[in-house]
Each structure stands twice: as C-alpha cells, then as structure tokens.
Design a protein that fits this description.
With 353 residues, the protein is of the alpha/beta class. The protein has 15 helices and six strands. Strands 3-2-1-4-5-6 form a six-stranded parallel β-sheet, sandwiched between helices. The longest helix is centred in the middle third of the chain and has 20 residues, at 146-165. The structure holds nicotinate mononucleotide and 5,6-dimethylbenzimidazole (DMD). Nicotinate mononucleotide (NCN) is lined by residues 78-80, 175-182, 203-204, 264-267, 292, 294, 297, 315-318. Its EC number is 2.4.2.21.
C-alpha cells in the first residue's frame, strides 16, 4: 500500500509557471484598472497554475463527504452523541443536509463515502470504503494501525481517480464525524508542534469546562502516542481519523490529476496538512475556501501557506464553505474567458504619469 501511495506522490508536480504568467498578462489587458478585481485575480492566477490554462472552464464539480467515527468520543469531547454520524449519513443520502442544499445551488454533486462509520449504512448511492467501525480512542492508544491509515489514504486516492474518470473537474472536500475536531486538533499539534490549547476549539459547541477537558484529552493523546512529526502516516494512525486520512488521499489524488481541490474547514485543513507532509507540492492544487469559526483554523491555513476567500463564521463542515466558494471560482474563470480586452472593446489604457 505504501508503494502505491508513493507512486502517486512521485507524480505530483508544482503548478504550471507558464500558465501563471499567461494569466497575469491576460489580467493586465482586460478592461479594468490593474489589480482592481483584487483577490479574484489571485484566484484566477492560481486556477491557471493548477489547470495549465489561463482560461479554464470547470464542468462537473464533486463534493466528497468522507464520514467516520472516533473512539475518542467516549472521553466526552463533543456536544453531540456519536450516533449522529450514522444518522447524518442518511440525511446526506436523502439530500437534506446543509451541503446538499448549497451543492444544488452551486451545481455540484455530493458523494458520501463511508470510510469508518461506527454503524452500518446501506444505500445504493453510498460509496462503501469502510476501513473499520470507527477509530480507536487516541487517549488510550493509537487511533488505528499504520496499515489502516494507509488503506484509508489509498481509498481516498481511488475515490479521486474514479471521480476524475467520470468527469470531475473540481473537488470539494467534505466530512462528517462526531469527535473529528478533536482528532484534527491533535493532527495540527503533532505535525506543527503547536500546544493543544492553541489548536483545540469548541467543535459542535462545547462549554468552557468541556473545552478544558478536550484540551487535556488531546494533550494526553499526544504524550501517550508520541506521533512522529516527520511522518504523516504515523500522525494519522496515532492521533488522526479515518475521514482525515481519506481526505488526505483525495487531495493527493486531485493533485496527481491536476484538478483543483477546494478545502472546506478545520477537518479538511488537517487532511491538507497531512497531504502537505506527504507531498509538499500538493499545496499548489489546494484552494482555501473559508476561514472556519473553529479556533486553530487560522493557524492551520497559515501553516499551509493559504489565504481563505470567505470569512462567514461557518463551522458546520460537510463541505459547505467549499461549495459556497464555487461561485467565486466560477466568477474568476468567467472573467478570464468572457471579459473584453482594452483592444477588443476599444477602451483607452491608463495614461502614463
Ligand atoms: O469544518 C469545520 O471547521 C467544523 C468545525 C466544527 C465542527 N464541524 C463538524 O462538527 C463535527 C465535529 O465536531 P465535534 O464537536 O463533534 O468534534 C463534524 O461532523 C464536523 O463536520 C466542522
Ligand atoms: C446535526 C449535525 C450536523 C453536522 N454536519 C456536520 N457535522 C455535524 C454535526 C451535527 C451535530
């Protein structure tokens, strides 16, 4: 399994520098004062680098919602009970979750992957890739074995490969898993050497007392398991989660296919940090959609070297912020394809002063 992942990693290259240059040049001849479309221009340049063309057009958009459970829930780290994960799985499949609504509006398809839900889910639309029934309790031992972490990463890669084969041109990372902000905070601490109190937030909405307890749980898990910060798979297996591993694989698969991957919130950010640890150039293919209300996400994006496009105080997960960002991606790509140039519209350029 390691060899198959290494093969994918070896194919991931930086963004296309020439397409970046062509995009910058095109932005300067469009009918607007230079730089006046602000961050939309930066987005257009990044998309050019990813897609290898300064005038990209994106058709099929796929939100991949990886769902899994977390043994650490038994420590009382979430405001909600674990069974919500399986219940929400059916909500996604029925089209009633927040991300389903926003995806319909943005013309995106939602795919639910069972990568480690603690219960059984059966539905014709489900992508069944269960590695195990929930992770182990990281406060008492490793979350999973190294083999299970590799299997989950590989599952994410194969989901990406299959979606690209069926026409996906943009990915959005989504997830569902009660307890997964604890695992994501632990991954952030382990990879970036950050203290638990900086990385841990309120997740689904815990009070001050539970927050102090959650920080102590993450501290204990890190001390007990001593994950190796130089080894992304070790971090995943000791203090990660199955959906975090699956999303890390999805990001690697997207980067391998040179398809933009829009990151949602805190959990997607943890997966992105793992992908970066495994393949530093994968960051070139990531678009940070929004800054989550979850404490620690800002720092996470800083460590990824990415700037979020939206700041709406979202903290739902599922891919909701990522899907909202599709409207901006569509805007940036249409500007590059449809906006007139000074020459084509007969508009005078700036006077040199
Ligand atoms: O995306 C985010 O930034 C985000 C922030 C807080 C919570 N969530 C969602 O809430 C769940 C995890 O919260 P918790 O408190 O159970 O760890 C999980 O299903 C996530 O999708 C997501
Ligand atoms: C209801 C509910 C929906 C969610 N969607 C993502 N995380 C969630 C957590 C809860 C509790």
């Amino acid at each position: 399994m390691q060899a198959a992942i290494d093969q994918v990693i070896s194919r991931i290259t930086p963004a296309d520098k020439e397409a970046v240059q062509r995009a910058e040049q095109r932005l300067d001849i469009l009918t607007k004062p230079p730089g006046s479309l602000g961050r939309l221009e930066e987005l257009a340049v990044r998309l050019a680098g990813i897609s290898g063309t300064e005038q990209p057009a994106y058709g099929k958009r796929t939100v991949v919602v990886m769902a899994a459970d977390h043994g650490v829930c038994s420590e009382g780290v979430s405001a909600f009970p674990q069974e919500v994960t399986v219940q929400m799985a059916y909500n996604f499949l029925g089209g009633g979750a927040g991300v389903n609504v926003l995806a319909r509006q943005a013309g995106a398809e939602v795919k639910l992957v069972d990568i480690g839900i603690a219960g059984d889910v059966s539905h014709p639309e489900l992508i069944a890739r269960k590695v195990r029934y929930g992770s182990g309790n990281m406060a008492q031992g490793p979350a999973m074995s190294r083999e299970e972490a590799l299997q989950a990463v590989l599952a994410g890669i194969s989901v990406a490969e299959e979606a690209v084969k069926s026409g996906t041109e943009i990915f959005i990372t989504g997830e569902m898993g009660i307890g997964n902000t604890t695992a994501s905070a632990a991954v952030l601490c382990a990879l970036e050497g950050i203290p638990a109190e900086t990385a841990v937030g309120r997740g689904t909405g815990i009070d001050d007392e539970r927050l102090r307890h959650k920080i102590a749980v993450v501290d204990r898990a890190l001390k007990l398991n001593a994950p190796d910060p130089g080894d992304g798979i070790d971090v995943l297996s000791k203090v990660g989660g199955l959906e975090i591993a699956g999303l890390a694989g999805l990001i690697l698969g997207a980067a391998d296919a040179k398809v933009p991957v829009v990151l949602d919130g805190f959990i997607s950010g943890a997966a992105a940090l793992v992908a970066k640890a495994l393949a530093p150039d994968s960051v070139h293919y990531m678009i940070a959609s929004h800054i989550s209300g979850e404490q620690g996400h800002r720092l996470m994006l800083e460590r990824l070297g990415l700037t979020a496009l939206l700041d709406l105080g979202l903290r739902l997960g599922e891919g909701t912020g990522g899907v909202l960002c599709l409207h901006l991606i569509e805007a940036a790509s249409r500007i590059m394809r449809e906006m007139a140039t000074f020459e084509s519209a007969g508009v005078s350029g700036a006077e040199s002063r």
